[in-house]
Amino acid sequence: MAPILEIKGLSKQFGGLRAVSDFDLTLQEGELAGLIGPNGAGKTTVFNLVTGVYPVSGGDILFQGRSLLGMHPYRITAGGIARTFQNIRPFPALSVLDNVRIACHCHDGYSTLDAVLRSRRFWAREREMTGHARELLQVFGLLGRQYEVAKNLPYGEQRRMEICRALAARPKLLLLDEPAAGMNPSEVGALMDRIHFVRERFQLTILLIEHQMRVVMGICEHITVMDFGQVIARGKPHEIQNNPQVVEAYLGRGAARMAS
Amino acid sequence: MKVKLPQWAVLVIALVVGILIQVAIQLELLNAYLALILTYMCIMIVSSLGLSIIYGFTGQFSLGHAAFMGLGAYAGAVFTHYVGSGDGVVAPWAFLLALIVGGVFAALVGYLAGLPILRLSSDYLGIATLGLGIIVRVTLENSDKIIPITAGARGMTGIDAPPLIFLWAFAILLLAVIVARNLRFSSVGRACFSIREDETAANLMGIDVVRYKTIAFVLGCFYAGVAGVLYAHTYVFLHPMSFDFLKSFDPLLIVVLGGLGSLSGTVLAGAGWVAVLEGLRMLLSGDLARFLEWRYVIYPVVLIIMMLLRPQGIFGTREFAFLTPREVEAPEPALADGVVTDGAHS
Asked: Which of A9, B47, B99, B183 is 20 to 30 Å from B70 by CA-CA measure?
């Protein structure tokens, strides 16, 4: 089976800084993979390159066999890749429901004329969007908050809302940038269950960046480790845990010697 | 007790009030000066609603709104000069066409100007539209070289008025509110608001940012153009200085005072703005007439106080209940199997 995402020799240069160099990653359909590494390793830069936020300096990104290079971010999202943000970026002054419905627009939207004339298509699509958004909010335990203004939600709930928003774009590939950041242990447990649930429910492929090892080791089937913009290890969770190079990147050389 | 009227009833009441005012004007119960102020109120609100779509909804800071009003005004006046005008009166059908011509002309110029400048971020957009406003004024001042009847910097005279101009302005105001409301409470409106809130995030959520900026800008310019045509046929005299970039601050202040993104706020602030400006003119008569120009000091002071006490404007982003449509009736999802409830792990 052809992979859903294929990143080949990807590199990104910011002036003299090589943020990502010669990065390879292949995701099979339905996979739940993790991308880890110390701070500044280039993980979020990879997400930004895949979603078209930054232009790519070298290499290629293939999504379902088609190159994403030079595509506008909104086209990439409409094409099936949605993401969340490391530092959350909700639409603060809008309601939770509207935040989620905005992402429905690229698939279930209608024209400006439909909106102004309140055509039959307007009502049908609007019902569809609202229903879809409410379903997602319900999965993430936010249905009771749907009419609240996003900025009034606690941090953890805003994070969950962002996942709903990403899912509303009906992606095939979901990129989660530190979904568990700032959550307490019981919230993290619920989050892991929810990620499993939506993956089955919407047949998603998921790539997540995470620092909480409990999440990464608990739900990822495959892990890629980055340091200084390069891949230093890849494999199944237990293989990664015992990889001396990974231990060194995280804890330093002395700790690596002690571990081995 | 709070009585909630259905929205169509509010519309009917508004229409009846408008017709009654026009009847009062015809019977000369309201003098010509008051009639003029009420008409100007409607015009100002229509123009401000246009800027509300551009700046309030989409966050595109524009300082060229008066220029688009001017373009519409001149286009409409030139149109009625040649079409449907006789015995000092413009035929209603010709006036309707003139409104469309003026609106479309302003929208077209807005579209062409928007192609390059809407890619700029908000602050630079302000400067670019400021420049555009000056270009338009200078063009209007020299327009008699191409179209002699505009008379360039001397000002255009000999514009005829249609009958019942107040009712025209009022009806268009109602229509403008309805269209803006339908837009606001739709997926397109939400796309515009998302651009205002966070352009990058909007782009990454699948919103074609340039497209919706352009739609908002062109529609806002259309509003300004239509308001311009009404202006031309209310005052029956046009001068390029009436559409100087300084005049762009009027709708800007109205939109900010009312609350960015709030239609209710824009309507109220627009009406209040004209009422206070003209009310002070009446108060400052006779011996006090030398203080007349001090009126223009009051607004900046009001604005500064407002920004200190209530930076989100009178209404924030809220609306009157009669401007807020009911949420669509989509089924609330039933708790599906396998859904995790909060607390399952606590």
From this structure: B183
